[in-house]
Amino acid sequence: MSSVLLDFFPSHHHQQIFIFFHSLQSFFRRASLSFLSFQFNRASLQHYQSILLSLKPTLFKMKFSALALAALSQVASAHYFFDVSALNGVESKSFQYIRDFTRPTKYNPIKFSSNPSADIRDNSFADGEDIICNQGATGTGGNTEVLEVKGGDVMTFKLAVGAKMGHPGPTLAYMSAAGSDVKSYKGDGDWFKIMEEGVCNASGDFTKDAWCNYDAPSFDVKIPQGTPNGEYLLRVEHIGIHRSHVNQPEHYVSCAQVKVTGGSDGTVDAEMVKFPGAYKDTDEYANFSIYGGAKAFPMPGPKVWDGAASAGGSTGGNTEAPAAGNTEAPASTPAPEAGNGQQNGGEQAAPSATPEAGNNNGQDGGFPGAANQQFQGQTGSNGSPCSA
After folding, report:
1. Of 143, 279, 317, 352, which has the maximum CB count within 10 A?
2. Do residues 305 and 175 share a domain?
3. How many domains does the chain have?
4. Cα separation of 64 and 17, whole Å?
5. Domain limit, last residue, from 38, 61, 76
6. Do 90 and 175 have their domain in common?
7. Is 347:323 a contact under the CB 8 Å cutoff?
8. 3-state SS string for 175-239
9. Domain containing 37: what range?
10. How many helices (H) and strands (E) does the chain have?
11. 84-101: string of b/e by CB count within 10 Å (b at 16+)?
12. Given 27, 55, 76, which residue is the final one in a domain?
């Protein structure tokens, strides 16, 4: 970002400023105010130097008050990205071990190319290379440090700018062996899944806090005990499924660079997948409805490998079955209408009898009494409502 703008605020607010102006850009685009759709990024902010300087007294007085920061966090919780990792509680710097990505709006999701063009940001597609580690991240490994870990270590992945995962949906983690140099590895090899969490709050709202990591600022990933020594990409992901009923899941993806030590020199015997290719817009998770009551959720990807000698294999993902309980939603809480545009703040669209074409206005939806679903993989996430 231009130093002209950053000079107004302390260094620990720089990333908040960047996200704030990208949020304004998205607002203007949705409002079709093309003459106001400024490209607030590092290059073009130079063009607005005189404007910013004239506003400096006012901006300086604001100093990003607690109220402004709280409002910004609410905006960021609509869309978000992972930039900080912590190993056994020791936190990294932003993008120290997580590969940075080059898309103009880091916080926006990755979606299938078959989705309406108005709902896709930065030409970032879930059936393209961006699904590996996010846009441009296949080439930023050289600027990213490598974190040394051991089997059994717990890594925490934290969202930027105080955001929370404001959408229902699963969290997942994968690893891919990178050979001798993870910094130059694109992530185009084989991937195995080491963790997944779905629904774990039996008394929660199936459209919201029934999901393990709903509204959480971070989640934990445990390195399997049996992971062989070597360098790996560790891919973490949250999938927002609030619009999967209209075939529009939202993928939030980041990759950390790690080196496993203290283990064996063997190989991983697990079901492997490749990105892109592991997810398709015809998959069950991509057409799943959280509306109408709790139901089994079809986890995307392969089965979880826990470090045992053999993880088995299957041609499909894991399905989370709800425990006994009432899985019927009240008749007055049907699915939202389909429509263009991004959802904001984890809110759902106004109800209608069935999902149908129309304008999605982002109203709250709620289905109390969702049944419990067991999650697979590692222990519950830091800040999430569930625990193993």
Report:
1. 317
2. yes
3. 2
4. 9
5. 76
6. yes
7. no
8. EEECCCCHHHCCCCCCEEEEEEECECCCCCCCCCCCECCCCCCEEEEECCCCCCCEEEEEEEEEE
9. 1-76
10. 5, 11
11. bbbbeeeebeebbbbbbb
12. 76
> How far apart are alpha carbons 71 and 83 in whole angstroms?
20
Edge-first strand order for the sheet with 250-261 is 147-150, 250-261, 230-240, 171-177, 192-197
| Look-up of token digits 């999701």 | 109
Q: Is the same domain home to 252 and 132?
A: yes
Distances (CA, A) of 320 to 110, 207, 373: 24, 16, 6
User: Tokens 């959720």 — which residue?
Assistant: 297
Q: Are residues 141 and 53 in the same domain?
A: no
Report d(CA 73, CA 196) in Å as an integer: 26
Nearest Cα to Cα of residue 281 among 252, 246, 235, 240: 246
Name the pTM for this structure.
Answer: 0.68
Residues 72 and 144 in one domain: no
Residues 195 and 67 both lie in one domain: no
Q: How many residues does the chain have?
A: 388
284 and 327 share one domain:
yes
Query: Which CATH number characterizes residue 233's domain?
Result: 2.70.50.70
Q: Are residues 18 and 142 in the same domain?
A: no
Nearest-angstrom CA–CA distance, 41 and 35: 17
Dmax over CA atoms of the chain, in Å, equals: 65
63: Cα within 13 Å, side-chain hemisphere:
3
